[in-house]
Amino acid sequence: MGVLDNETIYEKFDPQGMNKYIHDLPNHIENSWNELKQISIPTHYINAKNIVILGMGGSGNVGNIIKYYTQKNIKVPIEIVKDYVLPAYVNSSTLVIAISFSGGTEETIAAFSEAGVRGAKLLAVSAGGEIESLARKYNVPHFKINYSLPARAAIIFLLMPIIYFLSKLKFIDVRDDEINEILNNLKIFQQRIEITMPTGQNEAKKLAENLKGKLCIIVGSGIVSPIAVRFKNQINENAKSFAAWEEMPEMCHNFLQGLDFPDRIKDKILTIFIQSKFDYPRNILRFQAVQNVLKRKGLMFEVVNLEVKGSELSEILHYLHFVDYVSLYMAMLEQTDPMPYEMVTYLKNFLAENK
Fold first, then answer.
1. Alpha-carbon Rg for the chain in angstroms
2. Distance between CA 139 and CA 107 in Å, rounded?
């Protein structure tokens, strides 16, 4: 029996139950989608000429997921703002969506408040806080997350509202039957990667074992590029371990020249290529070329291809579930509690004390 197959390790090093939050991802999809049907969106929002999504950290990456997911079909431009300052073009023709789990993210509050002053079409997602207060002030739709869970485990409650809003406004087309099919496939997939599946048959556990003690570089393109970011963030936050990310094809224009030095860490670097059946054909060729270079340099790499059935949204949600489990298993191998968030909490407290 492998280390990760011993359930007592989760009792010891995951006492607050990050495992349960990860396991509940399919339920989060179902619950949020059903709750969203109770929200009314002003009909004139359908006339928006551009879309701006506000968010920091994991919320900002939700914006990136939306941008990559919609870019082949949506007919209006989308910009992701991870800052205090709104683009100058934002006006009454702009749909501005604020995402903040806590509702207290100061950059998002500042930009959302300014969007209200400019008369933009506003939507908001949070668990409360100042974002909810601003939504009430401007009398605009707000999806409230009524679940007690850590922010990084709330990604579905941040992501699904944006998909629902854009679908209701006819910017994209996501229907109940697609969500139901995704849920059915995701529950089957979960059985392959959850705690009870032995390491020998569990691709998430096997990848975690290979990543232990390594300097991870996560690579993705297209719709899985933000998944690479999520993977990196979850390794940082849950496993308390170093990880970085690169995007294809951009990495071909700089990354390849940076592989010679320092020589002493080459045996510590492991590059993970996340592949999608929706990858652009030339990017598939670039993956092969980069992997050839890594072989020549004596650098380790692995390819992750879940071969997900169905739509782009299905693939996104499957990969989100997968990388979350991998980060949990990495934490268990490092014998560290995935829940604490001390360094980020310190930074937030420092900023709050120095306004």
1. 21
2. 21
> What confidence score (pLDDT) does residue 77 get?
97
Q: Which of 237, 246, 312, 315 is catalytic?
A: 237
**C-alpha distance across the termini of the chain, in Å:** 53
Domain boundaries, the chain: 18-174, 197-333
pLDDT along the chain (355 residues), means of 10: 93 97 98 97 97 96 97 95 98 98 96 98 98 98 94 96 98 97 97 97 98 97 98 97 98 91 90 97 97 95 95 98 99 96 80 80
- Chain Cα centroid distance, residue 308: 17
Residue from 109, 103, 108, 154 nearest 129 by CA: 103
Is 237 an active-site residue?
yes
Q: Check residue 354 and give its pLDDT.
A: 86
CATH topology for the 18-174 domain: Rossmann fold (3.40.50)
How is residue 66 written in tokens?
A: 């939306």
Q: Which residue has the tokens 């903040």?
A: 100
Sheet holding 243-248, edge to edge: 243-248, 215-221, 269-274, 300-304
For residues 172 and 163, the answer to whether their CB atoms sit within 8 Å is yes
18-174 and 197-333 share one fold? yes
Neighbour count for residue 277 (Cβ, 10 Å): 13
Catalytic-residue membership of 142: no
The catalytically annotated residue of 44, 75, 170, 253 is: 253
Alpha carbon separation from 183 to 277, 286, 325 (Å, rounded):
19, 33, 17
CA 147/CA 14 separation, integer angstroms: 19
Our answer to whether residue 321 is catalytic in this structure is no
Give domain 197-333's CATH architecture: 3-Layer(aba) Sandwich (3.40)
Quote the strand ranges of 204-262, DSSP E.
Answer: 215-221, 243-248
